[in-house]
Amino acid sequence: MTVYAGPVFDMAARQFEVIADHLSIPMDERERILMPKRAITVSCPIHRDDGSIAVFEGYRVQHHLTLGPTKGGTRFAPGVDIGEVAALAIWMSWKCALVGLPYGGAKGGVRVDPRSISIRELEGLSRRYMQEMIPFVGPHTDVMAPDMGTNEQVMAWFMDTYSMYQGRTVPEIVTGKPVSSGGTLGRREATGRGVAHLARRVMSDLGIAAGGATAVVQGFGNVGSHAALELHNSGIKVIAVSDHTDALYDRNGLDIPALARHAATHGGIAGYSSELHYDPAAILTLPCDVLVPAAIERVIDAHIAENLKCHVLAEGANGPTTPEADLVLGKRQQEIFVIPDILCNSGGVVVSYFEWVQDLQQLFWEEEEVVRREYQTLDRAFDQMVSRAKKDRIPHRTAAMAIGVEKVRAGKITRGLFP
Ligand code: NAD
User: Fold this and answer.
1) In CATH, what number is assigned to the domain containing residue 332?
2) Nearest residue CA, atom 8 of ligand 1?
3) Is 177 in the same domain as 192?
4) 110, 311, 358, 369: which sits with the fewest CB atoms below 10 Å from its CB?
5) 380 within some domain
6) Residue 119 lies in a domain
7) C-alpha 223 to ligand 1 mean position (Å)
8) Which amino acid residue places its CA nearest to atom 18 of ligand 1?
9) How far is residue 221 from each of residues 164, 189, 224, 406, measured CA to CA in Å?
10) Both 294 and 201 in a single domain?
11) Is the same domain home to 102 and 85?
Protein backbone atom coordinates (compact mmCIF):
# COMPACT_ATOMS: atom_id res chain seq x y z
CA MET A 1 0.00 0.00 0.00
CA THR A 2 1.38 3.44 -0.88
CA VAL A 3 0.11 7.02 -0.48
CA TYR A 4 -0.38 7.01 -4.25
CA ALA A 5 -2.91 4.13 -4.30
CA GLY A 6 -5.86 4.87 -6.57
CA PRO A 7 -7.16 4.02 -10.03
CA VAL A 8 -4.75 6.19 -12.05
CA PHE A 9 -1.61 5.22 -10.13
CA ASP A 10 -2.68 1.56 -10.26
CA MET A 11 -2.97 1.90 -14.03
CA ALA A 12 0.57 3.33 -14.33
CA ALA A 13 1.88 0.57 -12.02
CA ARG A 14 0.15 -2.18 -14.02
CA GLN A 15 1.51 -0.80 -17.29
CA PHE A 16 4.99 -0.77 -15.74
CA GLU A 17 4.65 -4.39 -14.67
CA VAL A 18 3.92 -5.35 -18.30
CA ILE A 19 7.08 -3.54 -19.43
CA ALA A 20 9.19 -4.89 -16.57
CA ASP A 21 8.10 -8.44 -17.41
CA HIS A 22 8.84 -7.86 -21.08
CA LEU A 23 12.31 -6.50 -20.26
CA SER A 24 12.89 -9.19 -17.59
CA ILE A 25 13.78 -6.56 -15.00
CA PRO A 26 14.66 -8.30 -11.72
CA MET A 27 11.99 -7.92 -9.01
CA ASP A 28 14.26 -6.05 -6.59
CA GLU A 29 15.01 -3.39 -9.22
CA ARG A 30 11.40 -2.64 -10.13
CA GLU A 31 10.39 -0.56 -7.14
CA ARG A 32 13.44 1.65 -7.54
CA ILE A 33 12.44 2.45 -11.12
CA LEU A 34 8.70 2.86 -10.54
CA MET A 35 8.29 4.68 -7.24
CA PRO A 36 8.57 8.49 -7.24
CA LYS A 37 11.64 10.12 -5.73
CA ARG A 38 9.69 12.90 -3.98
CA ALA A 39 6.12 13.96 -3.35
CA ILE A 40 5.21 17.32 -1.90
CA THR A 41 1.78 18.28 -0.54
CA VAL A 42 1.06 21.91 0.32
CA SER A 43 -1.86 23.95 1.62
CA CYS A 44 -2.49 27.10 -0.40
CA PRO A 45 -4.58 29.69 1.47
CA ILE A 46 -5.98 32.60 -0.53
CA HIS A 47 -8.25 35.58 0.11
CA ARG A 48 -11.57 35.09 -1.69
CA ASP A 49 -13.24 38.08 -3.36
CA ASP A 50 -15.81 38.18 -0.53
CA GLY A 51 -13.07 38.66 2.08
CA SER A 52 -13.14 35.07 3.39
CA ILE A 53 -10.13 32.72 3.34
CA ALA A 54 -10.14 29.46 1.38
CA VAL A 55 -7.46 26.76 1.45
CA PHE A 56 -6.66 24.57 -1.55
CA GLU A 57 -4.50 21.45 -1.50
CA GLY A 58 -1.60 21.34 -3.95
CA TYR A 59 0.80 18.58 -4.98
CA ARG A 60 4.03 18.08 -6.87
CA VAL A 61 5.55 14.67 -7.58
CA GLN A 62 9.10 14.30 -8.94
CA HIS A 63 9.53 10.81 -10.32
CA HIS A 64 13.26 10.49 -10.88
CA LEU A 65 16.30 12.77 -11.04
CA THR A 66 18.61 10.29 -12.76
CA LEU A 67 18.91 11.98 -16.15
CA GLY A 68 18.59 15.66 -15.22
CA PRO A 69 15.95 17.95 -13.73
CA THR A 70 12.36 16.78 -13.61
CA LYS A 71 9.84 18.28 -15.99
CA GLY A 72 6.08 18.28 -16.05
CA GLY A 73 2.83 20.18 -16.13
CA THR A 74 0.61 21.53 -13.39
CA ARG A 75 -3.04 20.55 -13.40
CA PHE A 76 -5.83 22.58 -11.79
CA ALA A 77 -8.83 20.26 -11.50
CA PRO A 78 -11.39 19.42 -8.80
CA GLY A 79 -10.66 15.68 -8.68
CA VAL A 80 -6.87 15.82 -8.73
CA ASP A 81 -5.08 13.77 -6.04
CA ILE A 82 -1.55 12.67 -5.23
CA GLY A 83 -1.99 9.28 -6.94
CA GLU A 84 -3.11 10.82 -10.21
CA VAL A 85 -0.23 13.32 -10.07
CA ALA A 86 2.25 10.50 -9.37
CA ALA A 87 0.95 8.47 -12.33
CA LEU A 88 1.25 11.49 -14.62
CA ALA A 89 4.82 12.08 -13.35
CA ILE A 90 5.74 8.45 -14.12
CA TRP A 91 4.32 8.70 -17.66
CA MET A 92 6.32 11.90 -18.13
CA SER A 93 9.50 9.97 -17.28
CA TRP A 94 8.94 7.33 -19.94
CA LYS A 95 7.89 10.05 -22.41
CA CYS A 96 10.96 12.24 -21.88
CA ALA A 97 13.27 9.23 -22.15
CA LEU A 98 11.50 7.94 -25.27
CA VAL A 99 11.99 11.22 -27.15
CA GLY A 100 15.53 11.67 -25.80
CA LEU A 101 15.14 14.66 -23.46
CA PRO A 102 17.53 15.07 -20.49
CA TYR A 103 14.71 15.08 -17.93
CA GLY A 104 12.95 12.93 -15.39
CA GLY A 105 9.19 13.18 -15.12
CA ALA A 106 7.25 15.38 -12.72
CA LYS A 107 3.69 16.58 -12.37
CA GLY A 108 1.83 19.00 -10.15
CA GLY A 109 -1.74 19.73 -9.32
CA VAL A 110 -4.12 21.81 -7.28
CA ARG A 111 -7.48 20.46 -6.18
CA VAL A 112 -9.67 23.25 -7.54
CA ASP A 113 -12.15 23.87 -10.31
CA PRO A 114 -10.47 26.86 -11.97
CA ARG A 115 -13.79 27.85 -13.54
CA SER A 116 -15.34 28.28 -10.10
CA ILE A 117 -12.99 31.05 -8.95
CA SER A 118 -12.43 34.60 -10.24
CA ILE A 119 -9.36 35.65 -12.22
CA ARG A 120 -8.06 37.53 -9.18
CA GLU A 121 -8.48 34.42 -7.02
CA LEU A 122 -6.83 32.28 -9.72
CA GLU A 123 -3.83 34.61 -9.73
CA GLY A 124 -3.62 34.45 -5.93
CA LEU A 125 -3.82 30.66 -5.95
CA SER A 126 -1.25 30.30 -8.75
CA ARG A 127 1.20 32.59 -6.97
CA ARG A 128 0.70 30.91 -3.59
CA TYR A 129 1.15 27.44 -5.09
CA MET A 130 4.42 28.48 -6.71
CA GLN A 131 5.59 30.22 -3.55
CA GLU A 132 4.97 27.02 -1.55
CA MET A 133 6.96 25.03 -4.13
CA ILE A 134 10.02 27.30 -4.20
CA PRO A 135 12.14 25.10 -1.88
CA PHE A 136 11.57 22.09 -4.15
CA VAL A 137 11.80 23.42 -7.72
CA GLY A 138 14.38 25.26 -9.83
CA PRO A 139 15.63 25.53 -13.42
CA HIS A 140 18.05 22.64 -12.74
CA THR A 141 15.82 20.73 -10.27
CA ASP A 142 12.23 20.72 -11.52
CA VAL A 143 10.74 22.80 -14.34
CA MET A 144 6.96 23.31 -14.46
CA ALA A 145 4.63 23.65 -17.47
CA PRO A 146 0.88 23.93 -18.17
CA ASP A 147 -1.57 21.03 -18.12
CA MET A 148 -5.33 20.70 -17.81
CA GLY A 149 -6.87 23.80 -16.23
CA THR A 150 -3.73 25.95 -16.46
CA ASN A 151 -2.45 28.09 -19.32
CA GLU A 152 0.16 30.63 -20.43
CA GLN A 153 -1.13 33.25 -18.00
CA VAL A 154 -0.76 30.88 -15.02
CA MET A 155 2.80 30.09 -16.18
CA ALA A 156 3.57 33.85 -16.34
CA TRP A 157 2.36 34.20 -12.70
CA PHE A 158 4.48 31.18 -11.68
CA MET A 159 7.54 32.67 -13.37
CA ASP A 160 6.96 36.13 -11.89
CA THR A 161 6.48 34.75 -8.35
CA TYR A 162 9.65 32.64 -8.52
CA SER A 163 11.59 35.54 -10.03
CA MET A 164 10.47 38.01 -7.33
CA TYR A 165 11.84 35.67 -4.67
CA GLN A 166 15.15 35.28 -6.55
CA GLY A 167 15.50 39.02 -7.15
CA ARG A 168 16.05 38.49 -10.89
CA THR A 169 14.07 37.26 -13.86
CA VAL A 170 14.27 33.46 -14.17
CA PRO A 171 12.27 32.53 -17.29
CA GLU A 172 13.73 29.00 -17.37
CA ILE A 173 11.79 28.02 -14.21
CA VAL A 174 8.65 27.27 -16.25
CA THR A 175 7.80 26.53 -19.86
CA GLY A 176 4.60 27.23 -21.76
CA LYS A 177 4.92 30.93 -20.90
CA PRO A 178 3.62 33.71 -23.13
CA VAL A 179 6.17 34.68 -25.80
CA SER A 180 6.23 38.16 -24.24
CA SER A 181 7.59 36.64 -21.00
CA GLY A 182 10.33 34.43 -22.45
CA GLY A 183 8.15 31.73 -23.98
CA THR A 184 8.95 30.17 -27.33
CA LEU A 185 7.11 30.50 -30.58
CA GLY A 186 5.24 27.28 -31.34
CA ARG A 187 4.73 26.06 -27.74
CA ARG A 188 1.02 26.91 -27.55
CA GLU A 189 0.33 24.78 -30.64
CA ALA A 190 3.04 22.17 -30.01
CA THR A 191 1.08 19.32 -28.44
CA GLY A 192 -1.88 19.40 -30.82
CA ARG A 193 0.41 20.00 -33.77
CA GLY A 194 2.47 16.94 -32.84
CA VAL A 195 -0.67 14.80 -32.47
CA ALA A 196 -1.84 15.85 -35.94
CA HIS A 197 1.63 15.35 -37.46
CA LEU A 198 1.85 11.76 -36.23
CA ALA A 199 -1.77 11.02 -37.20
CA ARG A 200 -1.08 12.30 -40.75
CA ARG A 201 2.07 10.21 -40.92
CA VAL A 202 0.21 7.03 -39.98
CA MET A 203 -2.62 7.86 -42.38
CA SER A 204 -0.11 8.21 -45.17
CA ASP A 205 1.52 4.86 -44.23
CA LEU A 206 -1.96 3.26 -44.26
CA GLY A 207 -2.78 4.82 -47.64
CA ILE A 208 -5.56 7.08 -46.28
CA ALA A 209 -5.64 10.35 -48.23
CA ALA A 210 -6.36 13.53 -46.24
CA GLY A 211 -9.07 14.68 -48.66
CA GLY A 212 -12.18 12.72 -47.68
CA ALA A 213 -10.69 11.52 -44.39
CA THR A 214 -12.52 12.19 -41.12
CA ALA A 215 -11.50 12.86 -37.52
CA VAL A 216 -13.23 12.99 -34.12
CA VAL A 217 -11.72 14.95 -31.22
CA GLN A 218 -12.70 14.62 -27.55
CA GLY A 219 -11.63 17.68 -25.53
CA PHE A 220 -11.30 21.12 -27.04
CA GLY A 221 -8.74 22.78 -24.78
CA ASN A 222 -5.12 23.43 -25.64
CA VAL A 223 -4.40 19.96 -27.07
CA GLY A 224 -7.77 19.16 -28.65
CA SER A 225 -8.37 22.53 -30.31
CA HIS A 226 -4.91 22.75 -31.85
CA ALA A 227 -5.02 19.11 -32.99
CA ALA A 228 -8.43 19.77 -34.58
CA LEU A 229 -7.22 22.99 -36.24
CA GLU A 230 -4.13 21.29 -37.63
CA LEU A 231 -6.15 18.31 -38.95
CA HIS A 232 -8.72 20.71 -40.43
CA ASN A 233 -5.95 22.75 -42.11
CA SER A 234 -4.60 19.51 -43.65
CA GLY A 235 -7.93 18.95 -45.42
CA ILE A 236 -9.24 16.33 -42.99
CA LYS A 237 -12.91 16.74 -42.03
CA VAL A 238 -13.30 17.00 -38.26
CA ILE A 239 -16.82 15.60 -37.97
CA ALA A 240 -17.25 15.62 -34.18
CA VAL A 241 -15.86 17.46 -31.17
CA SER A 242 -16.75 17.38 -27.48
CA ASP A 243 -15.72 19.16 -24.31
CA HIS A 244 -17.08 19.39 -20.75
CA THR A 245 -19.95 21.61 -21.98
CA ASP A 246 -21.31 19.87 -25.11
CA ALA A 247 -20.66 17.54 -28.06
CA LEU A 248 -21.18 18.50 -31.72
CA TYR A 249 -21.43 16.35 -34.84
CA ASP A 250 -21.60 17.32 -38.50
CA ARG A 251 -21.00 14.60 -41.09
CA ASN A 252 -19.88 17.29 -43.57
CA GLY A 253 -17.18 18.51 -41.18
CA LEU A 254 -17.31 21.22 -38.51
CA ASP A 255 -15.96 24.72 -39.11
CA ILE A 256 -13.09 24.27 -36.65
CA PRO A 257 -11.62 27.82 -36.84
CA ALA A 258 -15.09 29.26 -36.07
CA LEU A 259 -15.60 26.74 -33.25
CA ALA A 260 -12.18 27.60 -31.78
CA ARG A 261 -13.10 31.30 -31.80
CA HIS A 262 -16.41 30.50 -30.10
CA ALA A 263 -14.75 28.32 -27.44
CA ALA A 264 -12.11 31.01 -26.74
CA THR A 265 -14.84 33.61 -26.16
CA HIS A 266 -17.34 31.46 -24.26
CA GLY A 267 -15.07 29.07 -22.35
CA GLY A 268 -16.40 26.00 -24.19
CA ILE A 269 -18.21 24.78 -27.28
CA ALA A 270 -21.72 25.02 -25.72
CA GLY A 271 -23.93 27.56 -27.47
CA TYR A 272 -22.19 27.15 -30.85
CA SER A 273 -25.09 25.23 -32.38
CA SER A 274 -28.13 23.42 -30.97
CA GLU A 275 -28.76 21.63 -34.30
CA LEU A 276 -25.36 19.91 -34.23
CA HIS A 277 -25.69 18.70 -30.61
CA TYR A 278 -24.68 15.04 -30.18
CA ASP A 279 -24.50 12.52 -27.34
CA PRO A 280 -21.08 13.06 -25.67
CA ALA A 281 -20.95 9.41 -24.58
CA ALA A 282 -21.25 8.22 -28.19
CA ILE A 283 -18.60 10.42 -29.76
CA LEU A 284 -15.69 8.03 -29.21
CA THR A 285 -17.35 5.21 -31.14
CA LEU A 286 -18.30 7.22 -34.24
CA PRO A 287 -16.89 5.82 -37.48
CA CYS A 288 -13.86 7.95 -38.47
CA ASP A 289 -10.30 7.67 -39.73
CA VAL A 290 -8.62 9.40 -36.77
CA LEU A 291 -9.87 9.45 -33.19
CA VAL A 292 -8.15 11.92 -30.84
CA PRO A 293 -9.01 11.62 -27.14
CA ALA A 294 -7.62 14.92 -25.77
CA ALA A 295 -9.38 15.41 -22.44
CA ILE A 296 -8.95 13.16 -19.41
CA GLU A 297 -7.68 9.72 -18.37
CA ARG A 298 -9.41 6.34 -18.70
CA VAL A 299 -12.11 7.29 -21.18
CA ILE A 300 -11.49 4.25 -23.41
CA ASP A 301 -12.33 1.11 -21.42
CA ALA A 302 -12.57 -2.45 -22.74
CA HIS A 303 -16.19 -1.99 -23.85
CA ILE A 304 -15.45 1.18 -25.80
CA ALA A 305 -12.30 -0.40 -27.25
CA GLU A 306 -14.45 -3.24 -28.64
CA ASN A 307 -16.67 -0.66 -30.31
CA LEU A 308 -14.12 1.80 -31.69
CA LYS A 309 -14.56 2.41 -35.41
CA CYS A 310 -11.44 4.47 -36.15
CA HIS A 311 -8.35 3.46 -38.13
CA VAL A 312 -5.91 5.57 -36.10
CA LEU A 313 -6.15 6.17 -32.35
CA ALA A 314 -4.03 9.26 -31.70
CA GLU A 315 -3.84 9.70 -27.92
CA GLY A 316 -3.61 13.42 -27.20
CA ALA A 317 -4.55 13.07 -23.52
CA ASN A 318 -2.40 11.31 -20.95
CA GLY A 319 -3.66 7.84 -20.03
CA PRO A 320 -6.93 7.83 -22.02
CA THR A 321 -6.84 4.04 -22.54
CA THR A 322 -7.17 1.56 -19.67
CA PRO A 323 -5.00 -1.60 -19.49
CA GLU A 324 -8.16 -3.68 -20.12
CA ALA A 325 -8.81 -1.67 -23.28
CA ASP A 326 -5.19 -2.25 -24.32
CA LEU A 327 -5.82 -6.00 -24.26
CA VAL A 328 -8.73 -5.50 -26.66
CA LEU A 329 -6.72 -3.17 -28.90
CA GLY A 330 -3.91 -5.75 -28.91
CA LYS A 331 -6.32 -8.08 -30.73
CA ARG A 332 -7.41 -5.31 -33.13
CA GLN A 333 -3.90 -4.24 -34.21
CA GLN A 334 -4.66 -4.92 -37.88
CA GLU A 335 -7.71 -2.62 -37.75
CA ILE A 336 -6.58 0.18 -35.42
CA PHE A 337 -3.13 1.78 -35.35
CA VAL A 338 -2.52 3.08 -31.82
CA ILE A 339 -0.20 6.07 -31.39
CA PRO A 340 0.30 5.82 -27.61
CA ASP A 341 0.07 8.92 -25.43
CA ILE A 342 3.72 9.04 -24.38
CA LEU A 343 4.68 9.48 -28.02
CA CYS A 344 1.55 11.09 -29.46
CA ASN A 345 1.35 14.08 -27.09
CA SER A 346 5.09 14.43 -26.55
CA GLY A 347 5.32 17.44 -28.88
CA GLY A 348 4.38 19.53 -25.84
CA VAL A 349 7.33 18.54 -23.71
CA VAL A 350 9.66 18.50 -26.72
CA VAL A 351 8.90 22.16 -27.43
CA SER A 352 8.97 22.91 -23.68
CA TYR A 353 12.52 21.55 -23.75
CA PHE A 354 13.30 23.90 -26.66
CA GLU A 355 11.86 26.78 -24.62
CA TRP A 356 14.04 25.89 -21.61
CA VAL A 357 17.14 25.67 -23.83
CA GLN A 358 16.35 29.05 -25.45
CA ASP A 359 15.76 30.67 -22.03
CA LEU A 360 19.04 29.29 -20.65
CA GLN A 361 20.94 30.53 -23.70
CA GLN A 362 18.95 33.74 -24.14
CA LEU A 363 18.91 32.94 -27.85
CA PHE A 364 15.52 32.59 -29.50
CA TRP A 365 14.54 30.61 -32.58
CA GLU A 366 12.15 31.27 -35.45
CA GLU A 367 8.88 29.29 -35.33
CA GLU A 368 9.88 27.31 -38.47
CA GLU A 369 12.97 26.09 -36.61
CA VAL A 370 10.87 25.04 -33.59
CA VAL A 371 8.38 23.11 -35.73
CA ARG A 372 11.09 21.49 -37.88
CA ARG A 373 12.94 20.23 -34.80
CA GLU A 374 9.68 19.12 -33.12
CA TYR A 375 8.67 16.98 -36.12
CA GLN A 376 12.21 15.61 -36.46
CA THR A 377 12.20 14.51 -32.79
CA LEU A 378 8.73 12.95 -33.07
CA ASP A 379 9.59 11.14 -36.31
CA ARG A 380 12.75 9.67 -34.79
CA ALA A 381 10.87 8.34 -31.75
CA PHE A 382 8.04 7.06 -33.97
CA ASP A 383 10.51 5.09 -36.13
CA GLN A 384 12.14 3.61 -33.02
CA MET A 385 8.76 2.61 -31.58
CA VAL A 386 7.53 0.97 -34.79
CA SER A 387 10.72 -0.99 -35.38
CA ARG A 388 10.83 -2.13 -31.75
CA ALA A 389 7.16 -3.23 -31.93
CA LYS A 390 7.89 -5.23 -35.08
CA LYS A 391 11.11 -6.76 -33.75
CA ASP A 392 9.65 -7.86 -30.41
CA ARG A 393 6.09 -8.47 -31.74
CA ILE A 394 4.59 -6.22 -29.10
CA PRO A 395 1.94 -3.47 -29.15
CA HIS A 396 3.06 0.11 -29.79
CA ARG A 397 2.44 1.20 -26.18
CA THR A 398 4.60 -1.61 -24.83
CA ALA A 399 7.32 -0.76 -27.35
CA ALA A 400 7.25 2.99 -26.58
CA MET A 401 7.27 2.43 -22.83
CA ALA A 402 9.97 -0.25 -23.07
CA ILE A 403 12.28 2.21 -24.84
CA GLY A 404 11.59 4.84 -22.16
CA VAL A 405 11.96 2.47 -19.20
CA GLU A 406 15.17 1.00 -20.64
CA LYS A 407 16.79 4.44 -20.88
CA VAL A 408 15.84 5.35 -17.30
CA ARG A 409 17.07 1.97 -16.08
CA ALA A 410 20.36 2.31 -17.97
CA GLY A 411 20.92 5.71 -16.32
CA LYS A 412 20.29 4.26 -12.88
CA ILE A 413 22.55 1.26 -13.47
CA THR A 414 25.50 3.28 -14.76
CA ARG A 415 25.23 5.87 -11.97
CA GLY A 416 24.92 3.16 -9.32
CA LEU A 417 23.13 3.31 -5.99
CA PHE A 418 24.22 6.13 -3.65
CA PRO A 419 25.87 5.93 -1.12
P1 NAD B 1 -7.24 21.99 -21.16
O2 NAD B 1 -7.64 22.30 -19.78
O3 NAD B 1 -6.71 23.07 -22.03
O4 NAD B 1 -8.45 21.29 -21.94
C5 NAD B 1 -9.10 20.16 -21.45
C6 NAD B 1 -10.32 19.92 -22.34
O7 NAD B 1 -10.96 18.71 -21.98
C8 NAD B 1 -11.37 21.03 -22.22
O9 NAD B 1 -11.90 21.31 -23.50
C10 NAD B 1 -12.43 20.39 -21.33
O11 NAD B 1 -13.71 20.93 -21.55
C12 NAD B 1 -12.36 18.97 -21.83
N13 NAD B 1 -12.95 17.99 -20.94
C14 NAD B 1 -12.80 17.86 -19.61
N15 NAD B 1 -13.53 16.83 -19.16
C16 NAD B 1 -14.14 16.29 -20.24
C17 NAD B 1 -15.02 15.21 -20.44
N18 NAD B 1 -15.42 14.46 -19.42
N19 NAD B 1 -15.45 14.95 -21.70
C20 NAD B 1 -15.06 15.70 -22.75
N21 NAD B 1 -14.21 16.73 -22.62
C22 NAD B 1 -13.77 17.03 -21.38
O23 NAD B 1 -6.16 20.80 -21.05
P24 NAD B 1 -5.07 20.36 -22.10
O25 NAD B 1 -3.81 21.04 -21.78
O26 NAD B 1 -5.64 20.44 -23.48
O27 NAD B 1 -4.87 18.83 -21.69
C28 NAD B 1 -5.71 17.79 -22.15
C29 NAD B 1 -5.02 16.46 -21.98
O30 NAD B 1 -3.78 16.48 -22.69
C31 NAD B 1 -4.66 16.10 -20.55
O32 NAD B 1 -4.71 14.70 -20.41
C33 NAD B 1 -3.22 16.56 -20.44
O34 NAD B 1 -2.52 15.88 -19.41
C35 NAD B 1 -2.71 16.18 -21.81
N36 NAD B 1 -1.51 16.88 -22.26
C37 NAD B 1 -1.45 18.23 -22.32
C38 NAD B 1 -0.31 18.85 -22.80
C39 NAD B 1 -0.21 20.33 -22.99
O40 NAD B 1 0.78 20.80 -23.56
N41 NAD B 1 -1.18 21.12 -22.58
C42 NAD B 1 0.81 18.07 -23.17
C43 NAD B 1 0.72 16.69 -23.10
C44 NAD B 1 -0.45 16.10 -22.66
Assistant:
1) 3.40.50.720
2) 221
3) no
4) 369
5) no
6) yes
7) 6
8) 244
9) 30, 11, 5, 33
10) yes
11) yes
Residue 323: inside a domain: yes
Query: How many separate domains does the chain show?
Result: 2
Q: How far does the centroid of ligand 1 lie from the alpha carbon of residue 150, in Å? A: 10
The residue whose CA has the least distance to atom 29 of ligand 1 is 317
How far is the centre of ligand 1, averaged over its atoms, from the C-alpha of 152 (Å)? 14
- Write out residues with Cβ below 6 Å of ligand 1: 146-149, 191, 218-224, 242-244, 268, 294-296, 316-318, 345, 348
- Residue 260: domain span: 188-344
Cα of 221 vs centre of ligand 1, distance in Å, is 5
Kindly report the number of other CB atoms within 10 A of residue 327's CB atom.
12
Segment 102-155, tens digit of pLDDT: 999 999 999 999 999 999 999 999 999 999 999 999 999 999 999 999 999 999
pLDDT at 160: 98
Looking at the structure, do residues 280 and 149 belong to the same domain, yes or no?
Answer: no
Helix, strand, coil share (%) of the chain residues, nearest 5 = 50, 15, 35
Atom of ligand 1 nearest to the CA of 295: 7
Q: What is the pTM of this model?
A: 0.97
Instruction: List pLDDT tens digits, range 335-359.
Output: 999 999 999 999 999 999 999 999 9
Q: Residue 207, Cα to own-chain centre: how many angstroms? A: 28
Residue 410, in any domain of the structure: no
Is 67 found in the same domain as 143? Answer: yes
pLDDT score for 165: 97
DSSP state of 277: B
Looking from the CA of residue 191, the nearest atom of ligand 1 is: 40
**Atom 37 in ligand 1: residue holding the nearest Cα:** 147
User: Which of 303, 326, 344 is the endpoint of a domain?
Assistant: 344
What is the tens place of the pLDDT at every residue in 13-62? 999 999 999 999 999 999 999 999 999 999 999 999 999 999 999 999 99
Q: Of the residues 325, 344, 363, which one is the last residue of a structural domain?
A: 344
- What CATH number is attached to the domain comprising 32? 3.40.50.10860
Cα separation of 57 and 138, whole Å?
21
Question: Which residues belong to the active site?
Answer: 107
For residues 158 and 178, is the Cβ–Cβ distance under 8 A? no
